Structure formats: structure tokens, C-alpha cells
């Protein structure tokens, strides 16, 4: 019999595809910016075209239209910000602010005992809020949410000085380096911490226990 406690969180949360896709438009932006004599307009066009192509590929792969449209709109919004300010580094501003907000949101969710890892996994599994009625699972999700806080905080710590110093090339390079590799590490560490935090007799995150049934 398969040990359900050993089930990988990565198998539920997915692989690296989405993060890889998200890292390509910034690379296209910088490539266009460099090739056309630091033209923000050329970089924006390259990024949007890249985002549209990726969106089409994702749609053909069967992803939800809403997710595809959102990913393309995110690239358009980043391009518009850079065009409006006239600063190429501002293409990365929305992402920087998003990571700041995400770090605070994940930390805040732990503080109020609604860890976002539990919310996400519970939603994907159709459990709604049943996981919160399991004290052990609530505690484990709280502990396992900290790597997600650290993931976003690390990006903020790295990207902020680069953005302030207008290091466009390094912003794009580290956007790739801190996208899917960091996300994979985060998921693996988070899954390990989740398993370690659960009691030995717990059936796993797919099977929340209610106190009244124990």
C-alpha cells in the first residue's frame, strides 16, 4: 500500500512550466531593449509578442482561458509601466511589488491561522475549509508556509537594489534564476516540512481529521 503521508506536494502544485513561461517575456523585453539601442518601445513589443505566443501555446495545451489572459495582461501591464515612466527597469516594478505583497500576505496568513498553503491545497483538493478543523494539519500548514514567505522575501531582497540601481540586464537574468529553480526548491522544502510536522499516525494532507471523529 502506498504511504499517503509521503505523497509529494509538488505533484499537486505542479511543475515548473508556469514559472518558466513567466520568465521568458522579461528576457524578450531586455533583448529588444538591447538590440534596438535601449528602446523601451522595442522591448515592450518584444515582451508582449512573447507573452502572446506563450499564451497561445498554453491555451493549446488546455490551460484555462482566464489564466492565459491574465498572464498576457501581466506582460502588457509591465510594458505600459515602463513606457509611462520611461525607465526600462520599471518593467520589473509590478513583479517587485507583487513579491512584496505576497511575502506580507503569506506571513499574515500564518499569523491569523489561515496559512495560505492550506487555503491553496484545500481548494485544489475540494476540501474547502475542512483542513482547518484538523489541529495537526492546521499546525503543519502554518509551518510549511514559511518557505513561501522566504521565497518572496528573497526575491524582494535581490530585486530591490537592482531596480534602484537600474540594473536591467541583471534584473532579467535573476528573474530567470529566481523563478522556477527557486519555486521548485520552495515546493520541495515546503512539502518536506509539511510531512515532518504531521504526527506519524496522520493519514496525510488529503485526509483531514476532525477532532470529534478522533
TrEMBL record:
Keywords: Membrane, Transmembrane, Transmembrane helix. This is Intracellular septation protein A. The keyword Transmembrane helix applies. The chain crosses the membrane at residues 40-60, 67-84, 104-125, 137-154, 174-194. It comes from the Bacteria. The keyword Transmembrane applies.
Amino acid at each position: 500500500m502506498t504511504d499517503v503521508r509521503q505523497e509529494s506536494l509538488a505533484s499537486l502544485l505542479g511543475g515548473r512550466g508556469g514559472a518558466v513561461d513567466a520568465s521568458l517575456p522579461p528576457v524578450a523585453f531586455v533583448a529588444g531593449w538591447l538590440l534596438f539601442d535601449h528602446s523601451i518601445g522595442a522591448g515592450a513589443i518584444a515582451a508582449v509578442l512573447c507573452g502572446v505566443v506563450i499564451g497561445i501555446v498554453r491555451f493549446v495545451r488546455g490551460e484555462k482561458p482566464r489564466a492565459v489572459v491574465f498572464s498576457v495582461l501581466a506582460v502588457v501591464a509591465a510594458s505600459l509601466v515602463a513606457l509611462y515612466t520611461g525607465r526600462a527597469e520599471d518593467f520589473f516594478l509590478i513583479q517587485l511589488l507583487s513579491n512584496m505583497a505576497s511575502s506580507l500576505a503569506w506571513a499574515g496568513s500564518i499569523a491569523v491561522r489561515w496559512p495560505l498553503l492550506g487555503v491553496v491545497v484545500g481548494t485544489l483538493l475540494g476540501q474547502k475549509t475542512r483542513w482547518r478543523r484538523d489541529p495537526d494539519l492546521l499546525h503543519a500548514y502554518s509551518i510549511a508556509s514559511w518557505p513561501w514567505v522566504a521565497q518572496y522575501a528573497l526575491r524582494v531582497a535581490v530585486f530591490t537594489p537592482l531596480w534602484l540601481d537600474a540594473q536591467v540586464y541583471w534584473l532579467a537574468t535573476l528573474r530567470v534564476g529566481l523563478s522556477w529553480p527557486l519555486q521548485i526548491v520552495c515546493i520541495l522544502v515546503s512539502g518536506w516540512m509539511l510531512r515532518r510536522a504531521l504526527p506519524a499516525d496522520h493519514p496525510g494532507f488529503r485526509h483531514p481529521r476532525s477532532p470529534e471523529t478522533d
